[in-house]
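Batch manifest, entry 17 of 40.
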Amino acid sequence: MQARCPRCGAPIKGVYRVGKRSNTYYVAVHMDGTQHYLGPLHYKYGTRTNKIVVRGAIDVNRELKYMEEITKAITEERLGREDVINALEEIMKATAELITTATQKYPETTAALTPWIEYMSRIIQSQ
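Output type: C-alpha cells
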C-alpha cells in the first residue's frame, strides 16, 4: 500500500525529520519531489497555552486525540460552565455531521451506529 501525505493525500516517497535548533519537524516528500510541511509531533508553545496537546499534521490521528482530550477536560471539570455548554454544542454538531457523512460515504456503518444513536437518544430523553 502506497503511503499518503497527511496534508493532501497524494502518494509520498516518505516522511523525513528535519532538526532546527532544539526542535524536530517533519516533511512529507511527494513522488514528484514536492514537499508538505507536517510540523512537529507537538507544538511546544501552543500546548503550553492550551488545555490540550497541539499536534502537527504528522500525527494522523490528531483529531481523535483532540476529541479525547476535550472530553477529558470536560469530565475533569477543567472547563467552566459556559465552556462546557459550548463544547457540548460543538460536539453534538460535529457528531451529527460525522454520522451523516459516514452513513452517506459508507452505508454499512449505519448498522454499527444505530445502537449508539439510540443510546444517546435515551440519555438525552432521561435528562
